[in-house]
Amino acid sequence: MSSPLSRAEEKRILALHRRKAREEEGLFLAEGVRVVEELVASGLPIRLAVVSPALETTERGRALAEALATRAPVRRVDERVLESLAGTQTPQGVLVVAETPRHELESIEIRGGATVLVLDAVQDPGNLGTLVRTADALGVAFVAAQPGTVDPWNPKSVRAAAGALFRTPVVRPDWPTLVEWMHRNGFTVYGAEAGGENVDAARLASRAPLVVGNEGAGLGPEAKAAVDSLLAVPIEPHAESLNVAVAAGILLYLLTRRR
Fold first, then answer.
1. In Å, what is the CA distance from 192 to each residue of 40, 132, 171, 213, 228?
2. Distance CA 205, CA 190 (A)
3. CB 118 within 8 A of CB 147
């Protein structure tokens, strides 16, 4: 059954666009047909679904609305209201509130070779979502979002990840905790930096975290202290650098395929 959206529910949704509210409540927002389909398939608890007539103009949208109705209360609103609640101008007729998954570093078990992605103060939510999506596609064991990194559950990150955040564990340890865990588990830590060793010539370890840095400043002091070796993607001399998500994608591919 569906019912109108209450003022309290509207206020909660708007609050969840802020990191503080997301962290206090343990909730996040997901919007768009594909992302919400992935969320439903993941089995993560859904607290509330808000839909507009646009969702049910297609068979795919109607199927999603029916699936949501079996998982959470559904609120029906007009397009104008949904757009005011969403983070985009085209939310495709659906917005949901779901519980943020909690993953702890010590609960992750590593067997054999493994690649890990470490984000050091990555600031752009679109970059973060793309990085997690790439990590998921290449079989990365988990993503560690270090202090100073944008919230992985920012609505823009959730959209850019296209469902990958629901499959790939994201942990948030501090640097000492992460470094101790990596050393204890036999990882050789690589950092992505333009002045590093040409990755084509590097002999890569089978257990390998890749640390990528801030879009402007690169790796911070704690990240540089944690890495065992710096790797670089060879590019043409006239090119200054690669986008962090592009560089990470290339290096993760090589780490996962050559280990």
1. 35, 16, 20, 7, 11
2. 9
3. no
Helix (H, G, I), strand (E, B) or coil at 155: helix
How far from the centroid of its chain's Cα atoms is residue 60's Cα?
25
Query: Alpha-carbon distance 129 to 161, whole Å?
Result: 4
pTM over 0.70: yes
HSE, side-chain direction, 13 A CA sphere, residue 194: 14
Please name which of 185, 240, 186, 201 lies closest in space to residue 218, comparing C-alpha atoms: 240
pLDDT tens sequence across 136-159: 999 999 999 999 999 999 999 999
The CA distance from 100 to 142, in Å, is: 16
- Among candidate residues 194, 210, 220, 198, the one with its CA nearest the CA of residue 248: 210
Is 170 in contact with 190 (CB distance < 8 Å)? Answer: no
What is the rounded CA–CA span in Å between residue 247 and residue 131?
10
Helix (H) or strand (E) holding 170: strand 170-171
pLDDT of 158 reads 97
Distance CA 52, CA 90 (A): 11
